[in-house]
């Protein structure tokens, strides 16, 4: 079983064979995009996998990648015609994966899960991308193994401090019930997070490049005191995200920190102090040495979807029951306008 997490900075691969780690890889995203065939060949290094969970962007209901239409890929990666910024550039890699002979599937984002109440989806697209769902599955499984609790008794917050974005996912009784995606949550290291509506107005045109800029890194470079200001905003934004999601998961008693920011001990200590009243702050450890948490979680989902030892976890998360599209709950703009932005025929 193989899981892939294609992020802004790196593409990571994690493989499981008979419950043991069989693939553990991380390489620059640019290299995988430049030579998809070499990347796909690497997935066979430990033998042909029984199932591969592919990079799924903002997510799709579970389906074989070879059956996905161009429209579904546009909805998964939210890239209009000619758009190369953001994760739109991953579409070519994903299309090559889908065309390979490997058993590749797409998996949902938070918006597709029926465990998230509809009122939390209003005017939202990014409640958490598919890789955040995967990382959350890893957090639940790690919590279960450490505490011996049943999955149904686990409530937690996953806080992902990624190379570009900060995101957070709420788990209540073993199910994802809410989320703040990177473009709708707090300031990230590279990305600005949720835009003030007036900032969007002043920008005139909001493209993918704008969504991936203006974060803590930019603030740190802005002045001699910029780094201290950036770190203060970055940490406080993460803390506020956790506090906000406690509304949806009031029983959450642990905060798991994943992503590149989880490697920063000083940052973890600041979060531990700031979140002392919420619960224990833990770095998500995972079971691989190299691959990111999203790839490890994707491997767990691949195993569960194939009927392996993690089937109960997949069943509790209701991964197979995911449905709909990320455009289903828009009211501030029309569905037709959203489809036109993606280059889709509004009449379809």
Describe this structure as you would to a colleague:
The radius of gyration is 19 Å and the shape is globular. Helix content is 35%, strand content 16%. The longest helix has 20 residues, at 226-245. It is built from 13 helices and eleven strands. The protein is of the alpha/beta class and 348 residues long. α5 (130-147) crosses α11, α9 (226-245) packs across α10 and α11 crosses α12 (311-317).
Q: Quick recap of the structure?
A:
The chain is of the alpha/beta class and 348 residues long. It has 13 helices and eleven strands.
Class of secondary structure makeup:
alpha/beta
Low-confidence stretches: none
Helix content: 25-40%
N-to-C span: 35 Å
Number of strands: 11
Overall mean pLDDT: 93
Question: What's the domain count?
Answer: 1
